[in-house]
Specification:
heterodimer; A: 198 residues; alpha+beta; two-stranded antiparallel sheet; 42% helix; elongated; B: 189 residues; 11-stranded mixed beta sheet; 2 helices; 15% helix
């Protein structure tokens, strides 16, 4: 065997080992170490207070399909509009005697106490407000991978930048898909029907 | 020798396939589709025009608030018929102890709201529309709930034209009932 051949063989051998390792990593190990978004979204050790007096944890998401939206009461536009959308969805679903379970989780727990949040969402059927301590809300924000950022205002006070989509979870508590802000009504209804019947 | 080469090539090929198929099956994050084409403009009478110098103010409205909603948005259309630029610098109303001029924008799926610290420019010859999903007057620390059918007096202060008070009717929220979504679809901007 020539030395060139030896080098070629060694190189090929090294490559083969690398390829085997890569295949093993991508096909076997990595999916286990890094489960898909659908399996992990919404999961975490947060413990929050729902406006119906119950405790909201990751286990709350299982059993019944649900929609989760993060917002806050000092929100002039997106949150009232989204709640209005939810009211429309519920009205359509009610024609078939169905209802979507919706959680409105505040990103502003300092101002949105469970009491005030309860009134805030009370006018929309099927919506439960969720608040809690700042640290537990922050855990939930991370668990649901939403964006929420406090923005100070010039003369004091603050507003919040936040993700404006509605996250849909199936009855096993797995993330199915999101409804984006002001998504086409029929498309949103299609997603909700798929969630409820799926 | 050929056999070894063949095996290695096959292995490398398999590895690449595995990596590629893995990449394909990765779940996507919720898609960012900031669709501003469906923003709503409620039907409001365009009849009355409030004139302040070269400025024409039309179609003012505010949205009714939700229970415990401590803020509200006010909207109107401002046309500058003059030759010089102006700026909306301040807003006052008895309905709220604090008012600001804001811009809302969707950054992907994230709603961002910013105070316009330098005011809202109203360039000469142009029309600026304050509407849901964009520029708005923000009522903060509301004195009380804003109810549909009511109205509120709002004073707008401009850098050059001075100030003017107009009546802002309070209209229903969109989507307050079935059928309301029809408005979203017919809206074309």
């Amino acid at each position: 065997m020539t030395s060139t051949r030896k080098v070629a063989l060694a190189t090929a051998g090294g490559l083969a080992v690398l390829v085997l390792l890569a295949a093993g990593w991508f096909l076997v190990l990595e999916p286990r170490l890094n489960p898909s978004l659908a399996d992990t979204l919404g999961h975490g050790d947060y413990s929050l207070v729902a406006t119906d007096g119950s405790t909201f944890t990751e286990d709350t998401l299982t059993g019944t399909p649900s929609a989760v939206f993060f917002g806050f009461a000092h929100c002039p536009e997106v949150c009232p509009t989204t709640l209005g959308d939810v009211a429309e969805w519920q009205a359509i679903l009610a024609e078939d005697s169905e209802q979507l379970r919706v959680f409105f989780v505040t990103v502003d727990p300092e101002r949105d106490t469970p009491e005030m949040l309860g009134d805030y969402v009370s006018w929309v059927p099927g919506v439960t407000g969720v608040s809690g301590s700042r640290s537990e809300i922050d855990k939930a924000i991370r668990a649901f991978r939403v964006y929420a950022q406090k923005v100070p205002l010039k003369d004091g006070g603050y507003t919040m930048d936040h993700s404006a989509y509605v996250l849909l979870f199936d009855r096993r508590g797995r993330f199915e898909q999101a409804i984006t802000y002001q998504e086409d009504f029929d498309r949103a209804m299609g997603k909700i029907r798929q969630l409820i019947t799926g | 020798m050929n056999y070894i080469t063949f095996t290695l090539t096959a292995l490398i090929g398999l590895g690449c396939l595995a990596a590629a198929s893995h990449a394909d099956t990765k779940l996507e994050q919720p898609q960012a589709t900031a669709d501003t084409s469906t923003m709503i403009t409620p039907p409001v009478s365009q009849d009355s025009v409030v004139t302040l110098g070269a400025l024409e103010l039309t179609a003012p409205f505010a949205r009714a608030t939700l229970p415990n909603q401590p803020v509200a948005g006010g909207f109107l259309t401002i046309t500058n018929t003059g030759d010089s630029d102006d700026t909306l610098v301040a807003v006052r109303s008895d309905a709220a102890s604090r008012m600001e001029v804001h811009e809302m924008a969707m950054d992907g799926d994230v709603m961002k709201m910013r105070e316009l610290e330098q005011g809202l420019p109203i360039p000469a010859g142009e029309t600026v529309i304050l509407k849901p999903g964009g520029f708005h007057i923000m009522f903060m620390d509301l004195a009380g709930p804003m109810a549909e059918g009511d109205s509120t007096e709002v004073t707008l202060v401009f850098a050059n034209a001075g100030e003017v008070t107009l009546t802002m009717p309070i209209v229903a929220r969109d989507g307050a009932g079935p059928g309301g979504h029809a408005d979203h679809d017919t809206e074309g901007e």
